[in-house]
Amino acid sequence: MIIGQVPTDVSESTKARIFSPYWPWFMCSRTTEYNPEYNDSIRDELSGEDPQFMHTVMDNQGEMRSENAYEQGCQQVWEWILNDSEIFEEFSDAEFNKLRRIKMNLLTRKETKHLYHTPHVDFDRPHWTLIYYVNDSDGGTYFFKQKYNGTRQKLEIDKVVEPRQGRFVLFDGLTYHTSSNPQYHDTRCVINFNFV
What we know:
With 196 residues, this protein is an alpha+beta fold. The protein has helices spanning 8-18, 67-84, 93-96; strands spanning 2-5, 26-28, 52-58, 99-108, 128-133, 141-147, 157-161, 167-172, 175-178, 187-195. The strands form two sheets. The chain has a seven-stranded antiparallel sheet, covered by helices on one side. A three-stranded antiparallel sheet has the order 7-6-9, with no helix packed on it.
C-alpha cells in the first residue's frame, strides 16, 4: 500500500467542481453488491450496508459513461498522479494506462450500528485500485490482511486510512477493503480508479 498527496491547487479545484450544486449524483441503496455464491465480498459481524450516492464515470467494461465527469472531476487528479507523482516511477506506463473503471462515491453522515460496510474487492482478477479522497472527513477506509483467493475467509483489519482532502491510496486491488459512513462530517467523497 502506498499513500500519497496531490498538491492543494489540484485538490481544491477538484473539490470545488465535484461539490458544485449542479454535479449529478445517483442514489444507490447500498455501497456493495453482495452475493453469497461468490467470495468477492464477505459480510461479517462488524459490517452492514447503507445507501450512498454515486456517479459512474467509466463502467466495469472500461467504457466511458460520463466524459464530462472525467474531464471535470477526475482528469486533473489522475494526470497529476501519473505524471508528477514519484510513486509511479517503478511501474510501466502500460500498467496505468488501462483504466478499467472509475466511480465516484458520496456517503452522508449517518449513525450506524456497524463499524464498516461489506468488505470486498472491486474485481476478482489481478488489478490495482487507487482511492482518491475529495474532501476532509471521517469514515475511514478499512483494509484487511487477507486478499481475494476465491475462498471464503475470516477477515482481519490491517489498517484504517482516514479521508483527507487530496490524499490517495494505491493498493493491490485483490486486497479486501471497505468504506464507512462519516459520523462527524456531513459528507465523505472519494474517486475510485481501477486499472489493470
